Amino acid sequence: MTNKANNPAWSILGAGAIGSLWACYAQNNGQAVELILRDQASLAAYQAHGGISFSSEQQTQLLNISACCPETLAHPIQQLLITTKAQQTIAALQSIKAHIHPKAHLVLLQNGLGITEQVQAHFPQALVLQASTTEGAYRSSRFAVVHAGRGQTLIGAASIEPRTNTSLAQSTAIAESLSFAPLQVAASENMAAVLWRKLAINCAINPLTVLHRCRNGELLSNPAALTHISQVVDEILQLSKQLHLDQYVEGLQQQVLDVARNTANNRSSMLQDIESGRETEIDAITGYLCRLAAKQGLTLPTNQFLYDEIQRITALNRR
Ligand SMILES: NC(=O)c1ccc[n+]([C@@H]2O[C@H](COP(=O)([O-])OP(=O)(O)OC[C@H]3O[C@@H](n4cnc5c(N)ncnc54)[C@H](OP(=O)(O)O)[C@@H]3O)[C@@H](O)[C@H]2O)c1
Q1: Which UniProt keyword terms apply here (predicted)?
Q2: DSSP state of 124
Q3: Level-2 CATH architecture, domain 194-318
C-alpha cells in the first residue's frame, strides 16, 4: 500500500510494551512509524520524556519516535498496527476512526479472540488481520520498554474459520513490512490453528494463575490447579470436537504443562493486571470461549467458573 511522502508506513495504536517494541525496532531499522497516543496529555508526557527509553540485549537508548494523538493526527492512516489490550481496541479505534482509510490494512497484534469481528464490522472494507507473538516485553515505567524475551510472530486471517478470503500473498507482504530486525513476522498458512491453540493455552493458564495467585510454574506443583487445568482442557477438547477444530489441539494437556514449565518464573499478564488493579483480557479469552460454546449449545462449567471469578475479582479491585 502506498503512502504520500512523509507519511509513516505504519501507524501504531497503543504505545505500551508491544507497540513500543515494534516502534523502537522500526526506528532502529530506519523505517518511519508513528505512535498514536491516547490523548494530548499523554502526548505531552511522551514529549517531555523525550521518546521511548528502549532496553534490549544490545543496548539502552532513548528513541524519539514520531508520535501523535487523535487531536493532532493530520493524515489518513493506511496501515495500522493495533497493540492495545483486546478490551481497549474498539474505543481506541473509535477515537481515530475519521482518519482511517476505508480500505486500510488493520493488524491486531494482541491476545484474545472475537475483537477482529467487531473491528471488521466497523471497517467493512478494510483488510483485518491478526498477529500472535511470543516476543516478550514489559514497561519498566510509562515510556520505558524492555525487550525481555525473543520469540516468533505469526500473522494471518483473523478468524478460527479454516476457510477465509485472505490470500497468503497478502499476509506475506504485510508480514515482511512488519519484520523490523531482529523481530521476524511470518505469514501463517493456518492462522486458525495458531489462534485456537493460543486461546486454549491462555484459557488453561492465565485465569488459574489469578485464582491460585501464583507464577506459571507454580501451577504444576498445586494439585487443585492441576485438576483445574485438566478440566479446562477437557472442556476445550469437547468444544473443539464440535467445531471440527480438534486437530488443532491434539496433545493440549501436555502443551499446557510444557508452557507452564517453560515460563515457570513468569507472572502471567492476567495476574499482573489484577495485581495492578487493571482490567484483564478475560473477556477476549475465557469469555470468548464460553460464548462460542453457548452458541453450540454447550456449557463449559470450569471455564465459566473461572470467567465469573476473574470478573468478580476485577470488580472487587475497583472498589
Ligand atoms: N507484553 C508482552 O510481552 C506481550 C506478549 C504477547 C502478547 N501480548 C499481547 O499484546 C497486547 C498488548 O500488550 P502490552 O503488554 O503491550 O499492553 P500494554 O503495555 O498495556 O499496552 C497497551 C497500550 O495501549 C494503550 N491504549 C489503551 N487504550 C488506548 C486508546 N484509547 N488510545 C490510545 N492508546 C490506548 C495503552 O495506553 P495507556 O498506557 O495510556 O493506558 C497502552 O500504552 C495484549 O493483547 C497482550 O496480551 C503482550
Answers
A1: NADP, Oxidoreductase, Pantothenate biosynthesis
A2: T
A3: Orthogonal Bundle (1.10)
